[in-house]
Amino acid sequence: MLADRDIRALLDSGRLVIDPLKPDRIQPASVDLTLGDQYRSFDRSLFRRVRLSAIPDDLTELHDGSDGIVLEPGRFLLATTAETVTLPDDVCGILHGRSTLGRLGLTVHVTAGLIDPGFAGHITLEVVNVGDLHLELWPGDVIGQLTLHPMSSPCQRPYGSAGLGSHYQHQRGPTPPRSGAG
Q1: Which residues are catalytic (predicted)?
Q2: Which among 9, 59, 132, 176 is least surrounded, fewest beta carbons within 10 Å?
Q3: Are strands 17-19 and 135-137 parallel, antiparallel or unpaired?
Q4: Which residue is catalytic, options 61, 72, 126, 136?
């Protein structure tokens, strides 16, 4: 895992890009990321069976979250980081929730925390309120922390390389699920 000085060196070299980034967002072993102003919700009134190899395009609806989001207990939605992140071919990232948010019952990246080397774009967050409180989320709230992990060597085919099926490369805003995405 990279320490703050290593994170700053990667940023200064231009090999790692986090935009926008305030210097105080760099923590001892991570970078704080903030909530963007859009989210996607699933229509909870419809019962739908979804085949994982043929995910329909109309599962979610895009919403403007600039006036905040009230996340009720048990609710799941897709949100986004305000920052775009570009990783070099020899560093992977892992997005973690924040301890204070977890103590309120908020999970921000349920299963897909790994950010592959070579990824570029906004990070879509899988947000669930597993607590008992109605939680208000506002654009600009610190929502998670990205740890950066050096690889043993640069990968041969970074995320986004031809033939990989990198469905989320250069994504903007909260991106719905896509068939065959991994």
Answers
A1: 126
A2: 132
A3: unpaired
A4: 126
- The backbone region for 111, taken as left when phi is positive above 0, alpha when psi lies in -120 to 50, beta otherwise, is alpha
Question: Annotated binding residue at 103?
Answer: yes
Residue with tokens 């790994």: 114
pLDDT of residue 78: 95
What whole-number distance in Å separates Cα of residue 39 and Cα of residue 163?
A: 29
Q: Which two tokens stand for residue 152?
A: 């043993």
Contacts of 180 (CB under 8 A, 6+ apart): 53, 165, 167
- The DSSP output letter for 85 is E
Q: Which structure tokens are listed for 173?
A: 């805003």
| Tokens encoding 114 | 């790994």
The answer on whether 125 is annotated among ligand-binding residues is: yes
The answer to whether 159 is a known ligand-binding residue is yes
Q: Could you tell me the two tokens for 59? A: 């599962």
- Per-residue pLDDT of 70-121, as tens digits, reads 999 999 999 999 999 999 999 999 999 999 999 999 999 877 789 999 999 9
Residue 182 is predicted with a pLDDT of 44
Q: Tokens for 102, please give them.
A: 């977890």
Q: What span, in angstroms and rounded, lies between the C-alpha atoms of 31 and 123? A: 13
